[in-house]
Amino acid sequence: MKKFILIVGLLLIFISISCNKTKEKSLTPVQIPFFWESANIYFLLTDRFNNADTSNDINFERNDSTAVLRGFEGGDIDGITQKIKEGYFTDLGINAIWMTPLVEQIHGSTDEGTGVTYGFHGYWTKDWTTLDPNFGTMQNLQELVETAHKNNIRIIMDAVINHTGPVTPQDPVWPNNWVRTSPKCTYQNYETSINCTLVENLPDILTESNKEVELPTFLIEKWKKEGRYDKEIKELDAFFERTGYPKSPRYYIIKWLTEYIKEFGIDGYRADTVRHIEEDVWLEFQKECQYSFDLWKKNNPNKKLDNTSFYTVGEVYGYEIIKNGAEFDFGDVKVNYYTHGFSSMINFEFKGNAKENYEAIFSRYARVLQDTLKEKGILNYVSSHDDNYPFDKERKKPFEAGTKLLLAPGTSQVYYGDEVARALIVPGTIGDATLRSVMNWDFISKDEQSLAILEHWQKLGKFRRGHPAIGAGKHKLISENPYVFQRNFTDGNYEDKVIVGLDLDIGDKKIKVSDVFKDGDLLVDKYSGKELKVKNGFVLVDSPFDIVLLETK
Questions:
Q1: Which is it for the CA torsion 544, 549, 552, 553, positive or negative?
Q2: CA distance 470 to 366
Q3: Which domains, ranges and CATH numbers included, belong to the chain?
Q4: Cβ pair 15, 499 in contact under 8 A
Q5: pLDDT band at residue 51, thresholds of 50, 70 and 90?
């Protein structure tokens, strides 16, 4: 434990109260109201997380030898369900899981300068209407969602509308009234970011088109071979009759993606490559997502978690939201994606801001989120699947990374392995493959350092999950030295208040708490298990750990 204290190099004191204004009774985790603005989301690549079913590891003769970490590694839906059942996510304070796309990927491989690569990541769609067998079945997905909901965890899937998968000998290009294959995007302005292909050999869906198109011949033949052609056509006819939309490419895809909401009750979508599609498309997508979510709740009243709206979070690559505000600037056009269907946006700025001190980060984020971005969500991260410039790429500061991410205003995104310092530098890899190594469960269970890091993230994560004030509350500095601040959050009759102290001396710690607690209140240090009493507006914490988490008994 001495080693742990030295590695952490900080003292964290949490003093909190979570109560209902009409009741003094403490709330259980299930009773604490859920807010996406303060959620703790776990993001994982399904193929790289956990392999629970080895029988589905190879499909469609995907046997080519690939570049390092560019083939399927065996992770599947059942692997996620298994870890939910084991309590891994609950212990980590996670209340939502975001998975990379699960839909059927191209069958062939490509080599675009990075070595032979398969669609293990899920972003190379061949058929939006079914799951890739490497990931699992519809029954597996249903069990995952139901298991997650029983554990008070929400499920976010990943939506790709911008493009199909690359063209290979096994995967023909979609018809030219569905996709464009040139020019390649140059990202100089609005036009050169949208009406183009992201990269070579990644056909771009004609999302701007309202012209009616027929289904691709290869898709019709595929459905007939699989015995589900009539079902798919019947559902499409019903969708277009209800909505009145033209049978143009984007509406087919919107229908196919929202079907997973109606069928399984998933709680949100992360939208891929948002800036490369006309913004009105996302408004249409959100409308149909919410319709499907409402319909699922109506048909499954005993399964819904609450009345929270469907969650949509957008990826506008490179978008620094805190610095630039609600409008993304293309250079010639500014777009507010919050008014075009998104609850939240991924914040590409945080990983850089994490190099600053605590107060610089926390006060600025809280101020902006309570002002110019009020009622608009942001999703912070320190590492991710396609960002080659994460905070602490060499994993030298895993404790600091967890503290800054999990205490920052906004929603937190824990990228799989952040919580155990999974290596982000893998010899022999090219490009973003180095960020996507397999979660090494056996190593984690035996490595003392990994377990110490995990314990740190677990305790912060559980405290974050239990206190919406951390992510969604107002921030107030109490003292610069020692560094102590307060957060408070109110929603109707629910009130949550938190006092946090960082970088304090190890040993006896005297903290002023009179802004939150009254004399005589009993608190519990969730890190050491000690009980404490407020006296003269202060608490005295005597703990061998340099992290203290206090809450009302």
A1: negative
A2: 10
A3: 1-33+468-553 (no CATH), 35-165+265-467 (3.20.20.80)
A4: yes
A5: very high
pLDDT at position 28 is 59
Angle separating helix axes 249-264 and 138-150, nearest 10 degrees: 50
Residue 511: strand pairing partners: 539
The H-or-E segment that residue 47 falls in is: helix 46-49
Averaged pLDDT for residues 145-174:
98
Which residue in 528, 546, 494 sits closest to 22, CA to CA?
Answer: 494
Cα 544 from Cα 369, distance rounded (Å) = 36
How far are the Cα atoms of 29, 394, 450, 462 from residue 454, in angstroms, in the given order? Answer: 20, 17, 6, 12
What is the mean pLDDT of the segment spanning 258-271? 98
287 three-state secondary structure: helix
CA distances from 287 to 195, 243, 309, 311 (A): 24, 11, 11, 11
Quote the Cα angle for 31-35-36, to 5°.
140
Work out the pLDDT band at 485, boundaries 50, 70, 90: confident
CA angle, residues 534, 460, 15, in degrees to nearest 5? 15
Task: Determine if residue 150 is left, alpha or beta; phi over 0 gives left, psi from -120 to 50 gives alpha, anything else beta.
Answer: alpha
Q: Can you give the pLDDT at residue 351?
A: 97
Say which residue the tokens 């409308």 belong to: 287
Identify whether the C-beta of residue 276 lies closer than 8 Å to the C-beta of residue 185: yes
Query: Cβ atoms within 10 A of the Cβ of 477, count?
Result: 12
Cross-strand partners of 485: 477, 500
Residues 212-222: what's their mean pLDDT?
A: 98
The HSE-up count of residue 122 (CA atoms within 13 Å, CB side) is 30
36 Cβ neighbours under 8 A, 6+ residues apart? 96, 268, 308, 311, 343, 344, 377, 411
